[in-house]
């Protein structure tokens, strides 16, 4: 058995050096969406490849049509091929730093400062996801320094295109299935419930995009000459959009709720015990009243219920001043967050049928939707989830909350579909970390306890 106290003490003593290594990685502007930063993305990938190589991993930089992936392997102590094998995932690419003028310190010059007694690490990628992935790499580092080897087979996969849609990931997984398939994956790209309470995300909503364009007359028309006689696509589109929800906030499209399931009673009880403030959640963004399905708490609305939202709408004249015109067409951008076993293809088909059923004469609809991702539910009785929860409880002194996420993390579905393995999602970011925004930060305590938590989780998995 490993000397856990000795490893954790080494983590505590080496924290400043761990921060220095994180800052070295964070100085690399690995912005995957901007072609001008292609070489910086490669530089970040190479930095991680070299760092894991220095730890004794068999690490390599794998080229794709986009940005490279980093793969590292470490054999179990005694090179036991039949020992359990776990995959650890993170991503080294980051969002653009704009608007630069709102940063208090340069985004790619990491900065450590204390505010109101709390030490924070500032810089782009600190919480999403360089600081997070470095928590498990640093845990491996201290474990290897103390024990000389890891207690199970480890594969590390670090992606460079997560912030730009992961176009190269699925082809890579399919081409390297035998190399990457493990007993389970651990994804460090989520957060704590609060600073003192760990969390494991077990529900991720899926996502389906659609773009709807209503076309009427052949050209834009003079509203004086044709107004009242000609169909106005904006009016038609407005009626279509208004038909999507009833007065109780439910989506009216036939078949939309097929596959939607209620969370187990035990999970609902746990969510109620969180004493989450619906009004406080909305007040922080200048709102006050939940606008989703009536009779549902905000946590239910964002964690376990599907949505249909209008993300953009345009048509006709949108410049300054006025222009008396009836537009030839009007467009709406739509997204649906999906839960349970809702099928993105079926939802898209049902939405299109619904729209077409409402079209008046002289109007037609065209669609430009993209492929979608179904929701993901990680079984709460997953044995590796329980081990991770035990490790988190040992570090934080309280049970990990099993939470949902209103957003989507497509890699979870890809691991399930391609590699046939479940994922355990845990991380150490906080709601105020300003992910994707100016002044992104990661509390020093999040980084420190993240490393310590992974050490404890490694011990639980070894047991």
Any descriptors?
463 residues, elongated, alpha+beta, 35% helix, 21% strand, single chain, four-stranded antiparallel β-sheet
Descriptive overview:
35% of the residues lie in helices and 21% in strands. Strands 1, 2, 3, 6, 7, 8, 15, 16 and 17 form a nine-stranded mixed sheet that branches. A four-stranded antiparallel sheet has the order 11-13-9-14, covered by helices on one side. It has 15 helices and 18 strands. It is an alpha+beta fold and 463 residues long. The model has no long low-confidence stretch (mean pLDDT 95). A hairpin with a 2-residue loop joins strand 4 (111-115) and strand 5.
Topology record:
Layout: H1 4-13, H2 15-26, H3 38-54, E1 58-62, E2 69-74, E3 85-91, E4 111-115, E5 118-122, H4 130-147, E6 153-159, H5 169-175, H6 177-180, E7 184-187, E8 199-204, E9 206-215, E10 221-222, H7 223-226, H8 233-242, H9 265-273, H10 278-283, H11 298-303, E11 307-315, E12 325-326, E13 329-338, H12 344-357, E14 364-367, E15 376-377, H13 383-396, E16 401-405, H14 410-419, E17 423-426, E18 441-443, H15 444-462
Parallel strand pairs: 3-6, 3-7, 7-17, 8-16
Antiparallel strand pairs: 1-2, 2-6, 4-5, 5-18, 8-15, 8-17, 9-13, 9-14, 10-12, 11-13
Helix pairs in contact: 1-4, 1-15, 2-4, 4-15, 5-14, 13-15
Task: Describe the oligomeric state of these chains in a short phrase.
Answer: single chain
- Number of alpha- plus pi-helical segments: 15
Strand-residue fraction? 15-25%
Characterize the overall form: elongated
What's a quick, concise take on this entry?
The chain contains 15 helices and 18 strands. The protein has helices at 4-13, 15-26, 38-54, 130-147, 169-175, 177-180, 223-226, 233-242, 265-273, 278-283, 298-303, 344-357, 383-396, 410-419, 444-462, and strands at residues 58-62, 69-74, 85-91, 111-115, 118-122, 153-159, 184-187, 199-204, 206-215, 221-222, 307-315, 325-326, 329-338, 364-367, 376-377, 401-405, 423-426, 441-443.
């Amino acid at each position: 058995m490993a000397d856990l106290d000795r490893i954790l003490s080494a983590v505590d003593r080496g924290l400043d050096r761990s921060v220095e290594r994180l800052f070295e990685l964070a100085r690399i502007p690995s912005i995957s969406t901007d072609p001008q930063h292609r070489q910086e993305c490669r530089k970040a990938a190479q930095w991680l490849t070299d760092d894991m190589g220095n730890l004794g991993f068999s690490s390599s930089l794998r080229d794709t049509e986009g940005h490279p992936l980093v793969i590292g392997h470490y054999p179990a102590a005694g090179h036991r091929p039949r020992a359990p094998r776990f995959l650890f995932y993170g991503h080294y690419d980051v969002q653009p730093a704009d608007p630069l003028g709102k940063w208090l310190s340069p985004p790619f010059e990491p900065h450590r400062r204390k505010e109101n007694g709390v030490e924070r690490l500032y810089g782009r990628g600190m919480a999403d996801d360089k600081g997070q992935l470095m928590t498990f790499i640093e845990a491996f580092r201290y474990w290897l320094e103390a024990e000389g080897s890891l207690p199970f087979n480890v594969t590390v996969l670090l992606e460079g295109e997560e912030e730009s849609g992961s176009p190269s990931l699925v082809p890579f997984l399919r081409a390297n299935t035998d190399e990457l398939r493990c007993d389970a994956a651990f994804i460090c790209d989520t957060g704590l419930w609060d600073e003192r309470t760990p969390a494991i995300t077990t529900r991720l909503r899926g996502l389906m995009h659609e773009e709807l364009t209503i076309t009427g007359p052949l050209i834009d028309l003079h509203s004086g000459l044709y107004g009242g006689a000609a169909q106005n696509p904006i009016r038609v589109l407005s009626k279509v959009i208004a038909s999507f929800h009833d007065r109780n906030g439910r989506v009216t499209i036939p078949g939309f709720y097929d596959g939607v399931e209620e969370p187990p009673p035990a999970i609902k009880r746990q969510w109620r015990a969180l004493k989450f403030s619906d009004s406080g959640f909305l007040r922080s963004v200048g709102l006050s009243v939940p606008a989703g399905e009536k009779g549902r708490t905000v946590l239910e609305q964002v964690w376990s219920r599907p949505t249909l939202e209008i993300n953009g709408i345009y048509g006709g004249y949108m410049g300054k001043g006025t222009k008396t015109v009836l537009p030839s067409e009007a467009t709406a951008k739509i997204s649906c967050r999906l839960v349970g076993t809702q099928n993105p293809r079926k939802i898209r088909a049902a939405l299109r049928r619904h729209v077409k059923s409402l079209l008046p004469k002289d109007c037609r609809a065209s669609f430009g939707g993209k492929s979608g991702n179904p929701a993901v539910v990680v079984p709460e009785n997953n044995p590796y989830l329980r081990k991770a929860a035990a490790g988190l409880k040992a570090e934080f002194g309280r049970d990990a909350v099993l939470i949902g996420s209103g957003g989507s993390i497509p890699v979870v579905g890809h691991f399930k579909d391609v590699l046939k393995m479940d994922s355990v999602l845990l991380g150490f970011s906080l709601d105020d970390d300003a992910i994707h925004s100016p002044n992104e930060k990661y509390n020093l305590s999040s980084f420190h306890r993240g490393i310590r938590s992974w050490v404890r989780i490694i011990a639980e998995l070894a047991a």
